[in-house]
Specification:
Distance between the termini: 13 Å
CATH superfamily of one domain: Formyl transferase, N-terminal domain
CATH topology of one domain: Rossmann fold
Structural class: alpha/beta
CATH class of one domain: Alpha Beta
Number of helices: 7
Strand content: 15-25%
CATH architecture of one domain: 3-Layer(aba) Sandwich
């Protein structure tokens, strides 16, 4: 069975969709949830699911001990699920091509530092884009520039707000992210 490590920075809805998906398929398990600060909803959700957690700030994530702790779990993939910190070069080197991210827009549009959550959806609306969606990609040393694995689209509706658009995009995230992870695992691309 494959082991996943999930990094998250918020309430954990994507992490939960991943956990629930793999509980049903049995092809992988989430072995650890990593958060960048205490008190996040994702940590409470992980505790309810009986999944070990770790809180690590930027300095801790860049430490050799952190990399060794992750390597000891032998994860098939590290999955960023709403994780709002840049991944240190040491982790990129330790897990080459094994870190995935989901972005709430159709990259390369509306990506880069500071482009997350409502910022992205507001930018889509301000640009007058007729559609938006999600991008699942590999992580490299630059924000939102890794190889694209999957994009899924939805229309921007007349009268959309950042909140209504976010809700529609989140539905795509919850459906496609676990399945894309599973595809990568099952096809030896992890």
């Amino acid at each position: 069975m494959h082991t996943l490590v999930v990094f998250a920075s918020g309430r954990g809805s994507n992490a939960l969709s991943i956990i629930n998906y793999f509980e049903k398929t049995g092809t992988a398990r989430v072995g650890l949830i990593v958060a960048n600060k205490a008190g996040l909803g994702v940590l409470e959700m992980a505790a309810e699911k009986g999944i070990p957690t770790l809180v690590a700030n930027d300095a801790a994530m860049a430490s050799p001990q952190f990399g060794k702790q992750l390597a000891d779990l032998q994860p098939s993939l590290i999955v960023l699920a709403g994780f709002l910190r840049k991944i240190p070069e040491s982790l990129l080197a330790a897990f080459p091509e094994k870190i995935l991210n989901i972005h709430p827009a159709l990259l390369p549009r509306h990506g880069g530092k500071g482009m997350w959550g409502q910022h992205v959806h507001s930018a889509v609306l301000a640009a007058g884009d007729p559609e938006t969606g999600i991008t699942i990609h590999r992580v490299n040393a630059h924000y939102d520039e890794g190889a694209v694995l999957l994009q899924a689209r939805c229309p921007v509706q007349p009268g959309d707000t950042a909140e209504t658009l976010a809700a529609r995009v989140l539905q795509l995230e919850h459906f496609y992210y676990p399945r894309a992870i599973d595809f990568v695992l099952q096809n030896g691309a992890a």
